[in-house]
């Protein structure tokens, strides 16, 4: 084994470890934040929807913040991102005497979280062997999902049996992110062989941008209003979200790994189209479970939809592998992923406000009807995906 391969394996191990700590942070933070807003500040659905604008605005700016750090490698950008994220978490936990301060620390957290997203995918792709990008992202996602299992368990057991406070939960999440920073610091800082572009917007990538617009709309409706349905309509506590997180995590470990292989085998078009069809059923379940005559089982249907929706979020890796197959050069990958994230958030930071108004005026069912329509648009867009994998599958089916 030469030194280059040895360094690659060492960096892969450190990145897996960093991803594990990020998974732990996710398991602590995700089931807690919405209940934190409801239990401590008692905000309405319109206010909850409006809060997504400042929360997602850093995602819209990510292409510019990534451009400001162009002199750094992807690994060092990830390190900076997680340090900012960590600061936001500690602020939420210990320096939030009013809702205004929550917004301030939430924005700081969001800057770090959104800056990390595109470089996480590009680092994972860079550490994969050619032709195995989907498999590698699937493996990394599965490991990260497994680590979040510990976080969900801590939230459930800590709140149920030890009366763990929200401050303590955010502090533990911050420490987990700090540990990931140490792993990233130990990784080799590889500079690109050619100068990366600050901004990449090419006609060739328009379909990728379109997929990101639809993903942003779909994502934000579910991130904002799916938990709010359980909190406001079904009166579910934070421990419920911890249990759902546990179940989704256990299911997500094999699901992500299998999904990565499925992307390599069947291609991105098949995966994104299947995701879209399943999302239509998930939307109907969320919005109309109470009207199916199921009685107490309506809540269980919403639980099932919640877990299914969380699993389907992993399909976003198909968008990253699709881009990797069509880019003109490797230097396009990170800035184009960042541009995709910015376009995604141009939609996602505005959708929740109108979703909140729709909920208030017509009822929450109509929010999910709108989400089902977006899923159908995503299905139509998916059929326009064409790569070498799709072409070879079509050839095999016609012979």
UniProtKB/TrEMBL annotation:
The lineage of its organism: Bacteria, Bacillati, Bacillota, Clostridia, Eubacteriales. The keyword Secreted does not apply. It is found in: Cell membrane. GO terms for molecular function: transmembrane transporter activity. InterPro entries: MFS, MFS_trans_sf. It is a multi-pass membrane protein. Keywords: Membrane, Transmembrane, Transmembrane helix. This is MFS transporter. Its main location: membrane. SUPFAM superfamilies: MFS general substrate transporter. Signal peptide: none annotated. GO terms for cellular component: plasma membrane. The chain crosses the membrane at residues 12-29, 57-72, 165-186, 206-231, 237-259, 271-291, 366-385. It comes from the Bacteria.
């Amino acid at each position: 084994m030469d030194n280059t391969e040895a360094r690659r394996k060492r960096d892969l191990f450190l990145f897996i470890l960093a991803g594990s700590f990020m998974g732990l942070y996710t398991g602590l933070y995700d089931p807690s934040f919405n209940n934190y807003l409801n239990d401590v500040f008692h905000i309405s659905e319109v206010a909850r929807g409006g809060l997504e604008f400042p929360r997602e605005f850093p995602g819209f700016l990510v292409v510019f913040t990534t451009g400001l750090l162009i002199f750094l490698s992807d690994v060092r950008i990830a390190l900076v991102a997680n340090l900012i994220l960590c600061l936001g978490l500690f602020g939420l936990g210990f320096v939030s005497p009013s809702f205004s301060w929550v917004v301030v620390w939430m924005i700081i957290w969001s800057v770090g979280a959104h800056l990390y997203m595109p470089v996480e995918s590009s680092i994972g792709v860079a550490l994969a062997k050619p032709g195995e990008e989907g498999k590698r992202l699937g493996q990394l996602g599965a490991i990260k999902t497994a680590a979040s299992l510990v976080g969900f368990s801590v939230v459930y057991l800590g709140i149920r049996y030890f009366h763990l406070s929200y401050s303590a939960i955010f502090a533990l999440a911050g420490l987990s992110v700090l540990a990931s920073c140490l792993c990233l610091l130990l990784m080799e800082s590889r500079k690109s062989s050619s100068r990366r572009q600050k901004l990449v917007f090419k006609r060739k990538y328009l379909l990728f941008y379109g997929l990101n617009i639809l993903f942003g709309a779909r994502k934000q409706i579910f991130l904002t209003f799916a938990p709010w349905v359980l909190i406001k309509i079904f009166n579910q506590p934070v421990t419920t979200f911890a249990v759902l997180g546990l179940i989704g995590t256990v299911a997500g470990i094999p699901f992500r790994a299998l999904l990565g292989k499925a992307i390599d085998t069947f291609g991105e078009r098949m995966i994104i189209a299947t995701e879209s069809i399943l999302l239509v059923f998930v939307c109907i379940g969320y919005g109309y479970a109470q009207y199916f005559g199921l009685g107490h089982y309506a809540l269980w249907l919403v639980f099932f939809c919640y877990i299914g929706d969380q699993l389907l979020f992993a399909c976003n890796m198909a968008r990253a592998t699709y881009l990797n197959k069509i880019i003109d050069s490797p230097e396009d990958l990170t800035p184009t992923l960042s541009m995709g994230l910015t376009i995604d958030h141009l939609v996602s930071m505005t959708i929740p406000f109108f979703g909140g108004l729709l909920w208030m005026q017509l009822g929450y069912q109509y929010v999910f009807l709108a989400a089902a329509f977006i899923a159908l648009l995503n299905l139509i867009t998916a059929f326009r995906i064409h790569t070498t994998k799709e072409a070879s599958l079509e050839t095999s089916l016609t012979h």
